[in-house]
Design goal:
alpha/beta; Rossmann fold; Tetracycline Repressor, domain 2; 61% helix; disordered N terminus; Prenyltransferase; membrane; transmembrane; glycosyltransferase activity
Length: 505
């Protein structure tokens, strides 16, 4: 936001802005940076990632990267990426300032280190720039090179420059007026240095909370499935098995968070067209793409170190299988209807197998089958919710092979699989294996109406639009869901340790 007169420091800032704005600016050409200024994101980083995720122009990018030819990298990414200037997040304070300057008859120039094709696409979309200066012909228009281009372009006239990075310092020094888009500790330093000629200041400090949100720690609840083998074998008193399960939980959680980061980065165009996903940190430009990539790599390194050295090689292989499958889902499988749902269900069920590999406890085929049907139902619930968001029948869901008007099909598929998971559970409870393992096995029948209630209620809430984008996130946050889970766990414990024949006597 532009500084307001809300404190002593803010008052001084506002007076500085007022002094600068009172000076006649009509003769000053306004030059504005693109990345980090007009838009909070970095267009080149987004385009490179789009090429990598979609396999477009990767060879050209690699050749340019090996030569360390930054302009060539930007040019290749710009040519091959599916870039949508109309979907970019924009800094409203900066845009309003530009529009006001244009309305006053001032010349406004987009001066960016981005590739010229990209910069011109943004300029064409916004319609507020008179011309564009950008990287082209092997020249990376940044820092001193951009300053030279500006000096040549303004032909001796004074100019104002709005930028956001350390590379803009020489341009601010040479400018008659400056606009600063700052973040972190540099905000106060730059504000004090150029206060006398500052015409605009926007504090765009980024928060770690946004990165943490992109990592989706609430989704770690899915990895509690790792403890199911431990729970059903009632081996929670085994310190070694419990420790292994805990380490496996964190390893899976770190991998899952890394994949969420990469998935969001690969889905920027689709997310920006979604009514709620457009507010995700990467889609909204609140976290730089490069930060997401680096964080994902660090999480993967830590996860596999835990898996290989803290748990077991067998578990590490399961972790690798999960990474390969979920990466395949992110890049390819999510585009195929039904295949995507089965893949999601497999990935959930794989967590149970990973828990078995970590603890050395064998898993009942009944449990695996129950989990698979249960998570197929939830995966269809997720697609059902997404299809409901499609405005018109026959309209395709972005990056998914589902269409508006197919919501009742998703609903039917989900309900059928919910019934199958309950039927599987009933067969398991009635098996000889349960009769021999539990002191009061008949108590387990209570879990069926509890799960039936939860599934029916969740589907009903999904139809009413009360579940949100993710059924698992809903279950974690919903108090009724937590109560049902607690009741199921208590039922399992009572069935194990209570002996009805003794109680009845």
């Amino acid at each position: 936001m532009i500084e307001k007169n809300s404190s002593d420091v803010a008052t001084e800032d506002a007076l500085a802005v007022k002094t600068a704005s009172d000076t006649l600016l009509d003769d000053l050409i306004l030059y504005v940076d693109l990345d980090g200024t007009v838009t909070p994101t970095d267009t080149a980083q987004e385009q490179i990632l789009d090429c990598v995720f979609n396999g477009r122009g990767v060879g050209t990018l690699l050749r340019a990267a090996l030569k360390r030819d930054i302009p060539a990298i930007k040019s290749a990414a710009s040519q091959h990426a599916a870039f949508r200037a109309d979907l970019l997040p924009y800094c409203e304070d900066v845009l309003q300032y530009i529009k006001d300057a244009s309305a006053q008859g001032r010349a406004v120039v987009l001066a960016s280190a981005a590739d010229k094709v990209t910069a011109e696409a943004v300029a064409a979309h916004l319609g507020v720039f008179d011309r564009v200066l950008a990287s082209e012909d092997g020249v990376n228009l940044k820092g001193e090179r951009k300053l030279k281009a500006i000096v040549l372009d303004c032909q001796g006239r004074g100019f104002e420059y709005i930028g956001d990075s350390q590379a803009d310092v020489p341009i601010w020094d040479a400018a008659d007026r400056v606009g600063i888009i700052a973040s972190g500790k540099m905000a106060n330093i730059w504000k004090q240095r150029w206060r006398p000629k500052m015409s605009l200041f926007v504090d765009q400090t980024r928060s770690f909370a946004d990165l943490a949100r992109a990592m989706r720690p609430h989704q770690w609840a899915k990895n509690l499935l790792i403890f199911l083998p431990l729970l059903f074998a009632h081996a929670y008193a085994d310190a070694a098995a419990t420790t292994a399960a805990l380490l496996a939980f964190f390893a899976f959680s770190f991998v899952a968070s890394a994949v969420y980061l990469l998935n969001d980065l690969s889905d920027l165009v689709a997310d920006r067209q979604h009514p709620r996903k457009c507010n995700r940190p990467f889609a909204a430009g609140r976290v730089p793409p490069i930060t997401g990539v680096v964080t994902a790599i660090l999480l993967l390194v830590v996860a596999f170190a835990i898996g290989a050295f803290g748990v077991s090689s067998g578990f590490a292989l399961m972790l690798l299988l999960y990474l390969v499958m979920t990466t395949g889902y992110t890049l390819y499988l999510k585009a195929y209807s039904t295949v995507d749902v089965l893949t999601l269900a497999f990935l959930y069920t794989l967590r149970v197998g990973a828990g078995a590999a970590a603890t050395g406890i064998s898993v009942s085929p009944w449990l695996v089958t129950f989990c698979f049907f249960f998570f197929v139902s939830l995966a269809y619930m997720k697609r059902f919710i997404e299809v409901l968001d499609v405005a018109e029948d026959g309209e395709k869901l972005p990056s998914r092979n589902y269409w508006g008007g197919e919501d009742m099909l998703m609903f039917s598929f989900g309900i059928v699989n919910a019934g199958l998971c309950l039927l599987t559970l009933a067969q398991y409870i009635g098996s000889v294996q349960v009769a021999e393992a539990y002191g009061a096995p008949d108590l387990l029948w209570l879990s069926i109406p509890l799960l039936m209630f939860w599934l029916n209620r969740s589907w009903l809430y999904a139809a009413r639009g009360k579940v949100g984008d993710d059924p698992v996130a809903f279950a974690v946050k919903d108090s009724i869901s937590r109560i049902v889970l607690l009741m199921v766990v208590v039922t399992i414990f009572l069935a194990k340790y209570l002996h009805l024949d003794t109680v009845l006597l």
